[in-house]
Design a protein that fits this description.
By secondary structure, the chain is of the alpha/beta class. The protein contains 14 helices and eight strands. The chain has a four-stranded parallel β-sheet, with helices on both faces. A four-stranded parallel β-sheet has the order 6-5-7-8, with helices on both faces. It binds iron/sulfur cluster (SF4).
């Protein structure tokens, strides 16, 4: 299974005259961008970026995703980027959008989108109008004003990619690949155009997963670096199910609405219960427990970006519920460094030994 690299895809898009959007985590309307001829490439705290330079614009307790992404988007690495989209995932990303727009003023246009936290019909209406407004801004930037049919075609393509993604993400045990290979494929959705993702994903070798030791549910924002999966396997466990923002939290349901903007809004509000949209505690915990049971997980490993406020709000009660249901629970923090600190690895190792 060959997955094109991020650099290859960026080069290909540019050679074909496509526009590139750097998109911050993590719910956003892919189809809307594509309908305007814009290809999203996501930025999750890029490796090899000096975050100290990004950190001077924010309070010390700002997460590394924001610090690194700010540094990246204001540095030479962002030269191929034609526009930037920052969803209001959390207060830190909202702060980043303000700092970028009002003080750092990148050369590219910067768009934002606000996600309603409720699930009332007025929330759906609000998000529909947000998407309509974003579409107007994207049209002014790209010169492409998509027809209703073009919007529907873009949605159909993204729906197919989402269905393939969901089918794989929800069935770890059916793929004969290592955890690292499995999550490398799922994370390629962060930059592969939908049609390329479908083509690559369909080649993922099926067959019974090689699993040793206890199964873990891996939760958090992003599993970086990917060495994490190798270490978990070396310690004698495997990841049988995830609750990662970069993976399973983006399993959206197909929409029923007829109007394309309304359909996009409906879909963007259909993610599983998760912290950044302030899902009710009980709903989220039931969802986690159900998935752990379905995936035969022995424990929950929360691998969290340090200072991620939305995640922290849920943590104490999540731990109580998971332990109360008889599962193991471990919380560790990461700063998105290229090497996982030995102290964190020791704790994961000890956790797996207790579960074994
Ligand atoms: S890691 Fe948490 S605080 Fe940082 S951008 Fe993501 S959701 Fe926001």
């Amino acid at each position: 299974m060959q997955i094109p690299s991020r650099q290859e895809i960026i080069r290909e898009i540019k050679e074909k005259g496509g526009k590139l959007a750097a998109v911050l985590p993590f719910h956003y309307p892919r189809a809307l961008l594509r309908a305007h001829g814009i290809f999203p490439v996501e930025v999750w705290g890029p490796p090899g970026v000096d975050d100290m330079a990004g950190s001077r614009h924010f309070p010390e307790y700002t997460c590394k995703i924001v610090q690194k992404a700010t540094r990246f988007l204001t540095g030479p690495g962002a030269a191929p980027v034609d526009c930037i989209l920052i969803p209001h995932t959390c207060d830190s990303l909202q702060g980043m959008a303000s700092v970028m727009k009002d003080f750092l003023k990148p050369p590219q246009p910067l768009f934002t989108i606000y996600h309603p936290r409720g699930r009332r019909s007025s929330d759906l209406q609000f998000l529909t109008e947000e998407l309509r407004q974003l579409s107007g801004e994207l049209a002014a930037f790209s010169g492409v004003r998509p027809t209703v049919q073009a919007l529907r075609d873009a949605m159909a393509l993204e729906d197919r990619a989402t269905a393939v993604f969901s089918g794989i993400a929800s069935n770890r045990e059916k793929y004969r690949v290592t955890d690292r290979e499995f999550y490398t494929l799922l994370r390629s959705r962060e930059y592969l155009p939908a049609e390329t993702f479908i083509e690559v994903a369909e080649k993922l070798p099926s067959g019974k997963m090689d699993s040793t030791g206890p199964g873990l549910m891996l939760s958090g924002i992003v599993a970086d670096p990917l060495d994490l999966f190798d270490r978990i396997n070396e310690f004698g466990a495997h990841v049988c199910v995830d609750d990662l923002a970069c993976c399973s939290r983006r399993i959206y349901r197909p929409a029923a609405q007829n109007d394309p903007f309304c359909a996009m809004a409906e879909q963007l509000m259909s993610m599983p219960p998760e912290p950044t949209v302030s899902s009710p505690y009980q709903e989220r915990f039931d969802y986690i427990i159900d998935r752990m049971k379905a995936g035969n997980a022995g424990g929950l490993l929360v691998y969290d970006v340090k200072f991620c406020e939305p995640e922290l709000f849920y943590l104490p009660m999540l731990e109580e519920r998971v332990l109360g249901e008889g599962f193991g629970f471990l919380y560790v923090e990461t700063e998105l460094a290229p090497v996982i600190p030995q102290t964190v690895l020791n704790r994961i190792n000890a956790f797996i030994e207790v579960l074994s």
